[in-house]
Design brief:
Layout lengths: L1 H9 L4 H13 L4 H11 L4 E4 L2 E4 L1 E2 L3 E2 L1 H8 L9 H10 L10 H6 L1 H34 L9 H9 L3 H11 L10 H18 L2 H16 L7
Antiparallel strand pairs: 1-2, 3-4
Helix pairs in contact: 2-3, 7-8, 7-10, 7-11
């Protein structure tokens, strides 16, 4: 099957041709997760509009949202995929138990795996760091008898990035030449998180960056979420 994909990408090819190969392989009984990862390894579209839905796979040109891509690619073969396995992948990022996790990097290839790691550290871990800090801030508020329903994002952002969230959103949206600072779509929020990650690692000393990153990893591990 690798040869089939390689033959396609040596010629002028479209995403539709690649998806056709993937769909046929899955329908003919090939393990869907292996075929899916091989397809992702040769996928080139950074974004697309499919059936009226906007998909953004490459965040700020650097980070691969592979689960969003997996969701899009699986649409044509859902009836051939175990429902629970697909749900575990798309919702929890969990690969089927039979899959050897050490093969993940090999199947994606070095470039796509690098993009995957950018997303893992820049979006997944960054969100985990924010959540962990918010828990600590909320604990302090409760200890001081403040209400537990407050939005603490401004305090979290000031602690983590040294600037309040409102200001950071304005800077980020201006860089993207967007005018609506108040209403970011899901893709823009993901891009914002990745942008914040880059801001943080460039702002603080390596020891603090490593400490915050470790904090995010531990937060994810407490939820049984790991990288590949």
């Amino acid at each position: 099957m690798d040869d089939i994909y390689n033959n396609i990408i040596k010629e002028p090819s479209t995403s539709e041709e690649l998806i056709d190969v993937f769909n046929n392989n899955v329908k003919n009984g090939e393990d869907w997760i292996l075929s899916l990862l091989r397809l992702i390894s040769v996928w080139t579209l950074p974004s697309e509009n499919y059936l009226g839905v906007e998909y953004k796979y490459l965040i700020l040109g650097e980070a691969l949202d592979w689960l969003s891509l997996a969701n899009r690619l699986s649409l044509g073969v859902k009836e051939y995929i175990d429902e629970k396995e697909l749900e575990n992948l798309l919702v929890k990022g969990k690969l089927p138990d039979r899959f050897l996790t050490e093969d993940f990097k090999t199947l994606l290839g070095p470039i796509k795996y690098g993009y995957y790691l950018n997303y893992w550290y820049g979006v997944v871990i960054e969100e985990a760091i924010q959540n962990s800090i918010e828990k600590d801030v909320r604990k302090r508020h409760i200890a001081l008898c403040f209400q537990d329903n407050e939005d603490l994002s401004e305090q979290v952002f000031e602690q983590l990035y040294g600037i309040n969230r409102k200001t950071l959103v304005r800077i980020f949206m201006n860089e993207l030449n967007k005018n609506d600072h108040a209403n970011m779509c899901t893709t823009e929020l993901t891009e914002f998180t990745y942008w914040l990650h880059k801001l943080r690692i460039n702002k603080w000393d390596p020891a603090r960056v490593a400490s915050d990153t470790k904090r995010g990893i531990l937060e994810l591990e407490s939820l049984n979420i790991y990288s590949y």
